[in-house]
Please model this.
Amino acid sequence: MTAAEYKARVADARKIVFFGGAGVSTESGIPDFRSVDGLYSRKYTVPPETVLSAEYFYSHTEEFYKFYFDKMIFRDAVPNAAHIKLAEWEMEGKLLAVVTQNIDGLHRAAGSKNVFELHGTVESNRCLRCGKRFGLNDVIRFAPNVPICDCGGIIKPDVVLYGESLPEAAVNGAAEAISDADLLIIGGTSLTVYPAAGFVGYFRGGADNIIVINITELSGFKNSLIGKIGELL
Ligand code: NAD
Model:
């Protein structure tokens, strides 16, 4: 589709839902997992999919946190043009919700309110022993070591690790918003991580009303814009 066609579709839409992934934050300096500069292309002794699994967290907590603080926490990252545009659309009343696989908290930082974080967020953390909650700053002061609660328990980030189920409230909210939308914009995701990628299946508006914005082409979609989401959204 052309940029002009895209603009017209957005102008006509009243209930946009945006479904995004790591590619939405690459222009904020946070690498994604699968494109050339992403985490999967770099050399690690243990692949990110293994490190970021629940099994690894519980069996190798120290190594998990070294990787996590080094590669998953980007304290200086700020929202880019895509995050800001989505927050503006919500304020204008034309966007129902942002559904994201990202854990970086940048949609909320940009001012978006109705955000469903399918994989949780680094901003929220919890003691595994007493349940006390902590913000990101509380855990960062332990870096690169394992954050420990006053009670002696290990603190775990509220991010969904491989092998864990998605948070119920986000699942329900995302499914409802997507099935209510009149235009679904999918951006900056390889749509390869399940069950999150399956959420686009809740859309009931037909293939014509799905638009994909990505720097690499995703097969199976009628309407695509190829390029950077910060520039095209
Ligand atoms: P992915 O890495 O599998 O795919 C990212 C996609 O975005 C790729 O298709 C890439 O071509 C595209 N892309 C990269 N930069 C782009 C840009 N500027 N504009 C448009 N497209 C761009 O990401 P995924 O599908 O979200 O799945 C990876 C998993 O990793 C997710 O579950 C996510 O939770 C997690 N993750 C999150 C972050 C984050 O929170 N920022 C970062 C890395 C990984």
